[in-house]
Amino acid sequence: MFDRLLYQIAKPALFAMDGERAHDITLSNLATIANSSFACSALAKLYENKVEALPIRCMGLDFKHPIGLAAGLDKEAKAFNSFSALGFSGVEMGTVTPKPQPGNDKPRLFRLVEDQALINRMGFNSGGLDAFLENFARADAKTMEHTIAGINIGKNAATSIDDAHYDYVAALQRVYSKAGYITVNISSPNTKSLRELQNASYLDGFLHHIKQAQDKCVKVHKRKVPIALKVAPDLEESEIETISELVLSHRFDAVIATNTTIARPGGLKSKNAHEIGGLSGAPVRDASTEVIARFYRHLKGEVSIIGVGGIASADDAWDKLVAGADYLQIYTMFIYLGPIVVRDIVAGLAEKVRNLNCETLAEALEQARG
Ligand SMILES: Cc1cc2nc3c(=O)[nH]c(=O)nc-3n(C[C@H](O)[C@H](O)[C@H](O)COP(=O)(O)O)c2cc1C
Predict the structure, then answer these.
(1) Are 79 and 27 in contact (CB under 8 A)?
(2) 363 alpha carbon to ligand 1 midpoint, in Å?
(3) Where are the domains of the chain?
(4) Residue 198: what pLDDT?
């Protein structure tokens, strides 16, 4: 009961503030908790320990259930232990860029409450890799045994698109030994030209550089860290086909679908709907599920798919899993519903598995996908 009440009490105060300020205050509290094993275990008792087990395999990694935290909330790896204690089975930190950079001018994060959405144009505000790794060194090794740490990497704004691979390779090499998996983010709408990396003319060479770096790291560290490519929801069918072919030929481990959208679906009610940036939450849900389904048709289960975009309930999560996702992440609806959303979604999914008379989620999905 208290676990549900806690966010209901905190939310009005947080929502009365500017979005980024509310984010910074919350994250700073979670960072303080992350550094105290006593506080973390108290938080885990309220949240993590009450989440049902619903194991699922994705990119060759075993997650204890299918709900992870999407990138962008903990950009500097300040609160891994806390997000684990809130119940996520995976925590994707970043996007981190090689060098520190301030990001775009404020304000740059807007709530669209009537639409259950956010618009952000943060622009990879980042303390850079040094600060990121220093923070992440405080993450608890024991926690990483049951909560998988994803590290999402990007390029600095000052790096040209032709030189982008230098930034990604540098970042990949530095985070490799620390990461459970690495995400190559080429789909943020808030860094000029970044999404052009998704075009065939850049993508083939770009993926080649990343794959080469991964292969070298496998030899050096004697461990394969899977690499996921994060894509936009605003892709044409022909682009999805090309990206799929390249992801398969370069043997990438996963596609994360999707990032925020630059589209503004009709019917948005909030006064902030005209703000420039990436839209997330409920309005991107169906577009992202459609992109997952299209990738699944091309990837045929040979490359894992991580589904993200507007998930608020077990039904939303189920739709994305049936469309072809192997694992899921949330961001925006975690802001609107609070940490209890993880337990509620996992409980709802576990019920669906039982209703299908299946032992595991994988078995239920095989049945549901037909
Ligand atoms: C404020 C904000 C910042 C974000 N920053 C990043 C980021 O740095 N890197 C990234 O790959 N995605 C970022 N995202 C995108 C999310 O990870 C996610 O892909 C997207 O919001 C769709 O999921 P959702 O509807 O559950 O939020 C950000 C989203 C929001 C709302």
Answers:
(1) yes
(2) 30
(3) 2-369
(4) 79
According to DSSP, residue 300 is labeled T
Q: Is the CB of 67 under 6 A from ligand 1?
A: no
User: Measured from the CB, is residue 68 less than 6 Å from ligand 1?
Assistant: no
188 is catalytic: yes
pLDDT surpassing 90 at residue 144: yes
- The residues, any chain, with a CB within 8 Å of residue 159's CB and separated by 6 or more, are 166, 167
Angle, CA of 45, 47 and 50, to the nearest 5°: 80
Q: What is the pLDDT of residues 186-244, one digit of tens each?
A: 988 988 888 988 788 899 999 999 999 999 999 999 999 999 999 999 999 999 999 99
pLDDT digits (tens, 9 = 90+) for 20-72: 999 999 999 999 999 999 999 999 999 999 999 999 999 999 999 999 999 99
Residue 292, ligand 1, Cβ within 6 A: no
A 10 A CB-CB count for 181 gives 24
| Architecture of the structural domain at 2-369 | Alpha-Beta Barrel (3.20)
Cα 318 to Cα 89: distance, rounded to the nearest angstrom: 17
Ligand 1 centroid, distance to 354 Cα (angstroms): 32
Q: What is the mean pLDDT of the chain?
A: 96
| DSSP state, residue 234 | -
Report the predicted TM-score, pTM, of the whole model to 2 decimal places: 0.98
Q: Whose CA is nearest to atom 23 of ligand 1?
A: 309
Structure tokens at 125: 């505000």
Q: How far is the CA of 95 from the centre of ligand 1 (A)?
A: 9
